[in-house]
Design a protein that fits this description.
This protein is α/β, with parallel strands linked by helices and about 290 residues long. About 40% of the residues lie in helices and about 20% in strands. The strands form four sheets. A five-stranded parallel β-sheet has the order 3-2-1-4-5, with helices on both faces. A three-stranded antiparallel β-sheet has the order 6-9-10, covered by helices on one side. Helix 1 runs parallel beside helix 2 and helix 1 packs across helix 7. The longest helix has 21 residues. The N and C termini lie far apart (about 50 Å).
């Protein structure tokens, strides 16, 4: 009998703990929760393990302040980093979180060279936007979120490129169901979705939707679902962009990103996508300074 897949979650804050919770509730594998703060990953892992008998999962949970327990992981979800505070842009986080993520990747890659990495640390990309866009569309039309399939490209935040003509409710494009100004309002709310939550919470930022989105990716990888999801993927000429990670629809399977799905964009959509890619490139260039 094959051993359960091993999932490492780095960062035991709200997002990391939520990823661990959703992953074991779906019985995707055993989970190692890593954090620099002593006691936090150990305590949360123990608490989650004790919820197992009630929720019916047998996953083994381990909390650690080091990386040795992460050896031979199948998937590593990195949520470590500073959270955004009110009035702080995602770009403000850039330098600090780049430093944190860089050291984490070095540690996990050494011990799990075959693992697939999923980065959730800000500045993040389109996964969470999609969840938010689907939620807002479902509420506006008073239909089940399960009927809604939304489509977004590009960066996370102001530069996102929603494609309403590819966003559907039970297969019907939302452009046939909602007036233009209503769609525009939903798009704007989606683009500012993270800031809206930060302003409510004051201390801290969103974690349920980001956690759920990351676990959807973990599940697609571990179960080799070949699921098409919007992820920040490295573009090498697709959509006319080369050399940066930008949010695009990808096929996620056991080998990670197995295909970038390219669709034909209108001139306006392509221009918006180019602008989004340029914003990402600007951040990358800042890091090289």
């Amino acid at each position: 009998m094959a051993a359960r897949p091993k999932i490492t979650v780095v960062g035991a804050g709200n997002v990391g703990a939520t990823v661990a919770q959703y992953a074991v509730e779906k019985e995707l594998g055993d989970v190692v929760l890593v954090d620099v703060i002593e006691g936090i990953p150990q305590g949360k892992s123990l608490d989650l393990a004790q919820a197992g008998p009630i929720h019916g999962y047998d996953s083994v949970l381990v909390g650690s302040n080091g990386y040795d327990e992460t050896a031979d992981s199948d998937v590593v979800v990195i949520t470590a980093g500073m959270a955004r505070k009110p009035g702080m842009t995602r770009d403000d986080l850039l330098f600090k979180n780049a430093e944190i993520v860089g050291s984490v990747v070095e540690q996990v890659a050494r011990r799990s060279p075959l693992a697939i990495l999923i980065l959730v640390t800000n500045p993040l990309d389109a996964m969470v936007q999609l969840a938010r866009f689907r939620t807002f569309i479902a509420r506006e039309l008073d239909v089940s979120v399960e009927n809604v399939s939304a489509f977004v490209l590009g960066g996370h935040g102001d530069s996102m490129v929603p494609l309403p003509r590819y966003s559907t409710v039970a297969g019907i494009p939302i452009t046939d169901l909602l007036p233009r100004e209503k769609i525009d309002a939903l798009v704007t709310r989606t683009a500012n979705g993270g800031a809206e939550i930060v302003n409510f919470l004051k201390a801290g930022s969103a974690y349920y939707a980001p956690g759920a989105s990351a676990v959807e990716m973990v599940e697609a990888i571990l179960k080799d679902k070949k699921k098409i999801l919007p992820c920040a993927a490295y573009l090498d000429g697709q959509y006319g962009v080369r050399g940066v990670y930008v949010g695009v629809p990808v096929k996620l399977g056991r080998r990670g990103v197995e295909q970038i799905v390219e669709i034909k964009l209108t001139p306006d959509e392509q221009a918006a996508f180019n602008k989004s890619a340029a914003a990402v490139r600007e951040l990358v260039d800042k890091l090289k300074l």
